[in-house]
Structures are given as C-alpha cells and as structure tokens.
Design brief:
Helix content: 40-55%
Number of helices: 8
Shape: globular
CATH architecture of the largest domain: 3-Layer(aba) Sandwich
Radius of gyration: 22 Å
Distance between the termini: 47 Å
Number of strands: 6
CATH topology of the largest domain: Rossmann fold
Structural class: alpha/beta
CATH class of the largest domain: Alpha Beta
Order of helices and strands: HEHEHEHHEHHEHE
Largest sheet: 6 strands, parallel
Strand order of the largest sheet: 3-2-4-5-1-6
Strand content: 5-15%
Number of domains: 2
C-alpha cells in the first residue's frame, strides 16, 4: 500500500524491513526444531483457567479428528458444561468422571483415596490405549497434593507411556517430581477472581 505522505512511506519501509529480518530469524529458529514426541503438559497455579485451557486443547484435538480420553479426579457427578458438551462426541471422546466431589464435601479420606486409585487405574488404561491420541487428567494434581496417590508411581507411569501419547494434567500445587518430567508447565497466576467479590461459580463460565 502506497501513500503520498513521505513519513508514512518511510514507516512502511522500516516496518517491512523489520518484519523481513524477523521472518529470517524465525525461519532459522524453526529449522532447528523437530516434530518431537507426545508431550506431557501441566497446568497449575493459583489462578482460574487450568481446566478451561485443557478442555480448549481437547476441542482443538477433536478438530483434527484425534481421539481423546478424559478422567476427572475430583469433580463429582454434578453437571458441568464440559461434560455435557464433550459427551456429544462419543466416537472421539471417552469421558470418565471418577471423583467423589471436593475433599471438604466427602470428609472421608479412605473414600477419597479409593476414588483416586480407581481414577488412576483408568488413567493408565487410557494412556496405554493406542486409539487415544490425547489424555486429559483433570485435577490429578489435587489427588497428588493430598497424597491419595504415590507420586513416584505416577511419575514412573507417565514416563513409561507410549512415546506418541500426549497427556495434559491440571490442578494447583503440582508436585516438583511431576514438574521435573513435564515438557510444558504453565502456571496460572491469580490477579482477580469474582468469588472474592461475592460471586458464586456461574454456569457456562466456571462449570
């Protein structure tokens, strides 16, 4: 695009040259990258959005025709938007809600441990299922935080999963042992939350 203003023309030329240099830099960097292997991704931190981002990744995978396994460790049988939506894709998504609810609701550690162990058994099964491309272990970090599962056994199973398998794990307070083997770690930072302003969780936004 041309203009009669010499100052704007100069800015346009400078911009084009800068973008040309940036593209050359990016091309050189990308030439050093490989396709890689199945990724282990961890979404943690105090801020909202860990599961939300993970379910966005699930939607992206479905868009490419991939198959996904989902295990929810903490959320109980109450309805969530993600479960209602992804159950519309039974040929592509296996969705298992295996938690007993929040720990302060159950108030029964033995029951929570049993639920976590059952959820983990299903998780291992999904990770070893060649039909699934991506496995989401929602709130696994919470089960590890309360020592419902042996973190070393979990880490060993994750490390031994099929090389092409993508796994995403969510929940605050991710264990250092898990972070040490992850390919991607994203920490959600809390800046402001509507709950602190007196709002309850809202349908379609929070669940």
């Amino acid at each position: 695009m041309t203009t009669d203003d010499p100052d704007i023309e100069a800015q346009n030329r400078e911009h084009a040259e800068a973008m040309k240099a940036l593209k050359a830099e990016r091309d050189a960097m990308m030439a050093t990258k490989t396709q890689g292997h199945g990724l282990l991704m961890v979404h943690t931190g105090e801020g909202k959005g860990k599961s939300t981002a993970a379910f966005g990744m699930v939607a992206r995978a479905l868009g490419w025709g991939m198959k996904v396994g989902i295990v929810q460790f903490i959320k109980g049988k109450w309805k969530t938007g993600e479960r209602l939506f992804f159950q519309r894709f039974p040929d592509q998504v296996r969705f298992e809600v295996m938690g007993e609810g929040f720990t302060w609701d159950t108030q029964d550690r033995a029951r929570d441990v049993a639920a976590a162990e059952a959820a983990w058994a299903t998780s291992v099964e999904m990770m070893n299922d060649p039909a699934l491309d991506l496995v989401l272990l929602d709130e696994l970090n919470i089960a590890l935080r309360y020592d419902y599962l042996d973190v070393n056994a979990v880490v060993a199973a994750l490390a031994a999963r099929p090389r092409a398998k993508h796994v995403c794990i969510t929940g605050r307070n991710a264990k250092p042992e898990l972070l040490a083997i992850a390919d991607l770690v994203t920490e959600m930072t809390l800046v402001r939350h509507p709950f602190d302003q007196g709002f309850k969780a809202q349908r379609g936004v929070d669940f």
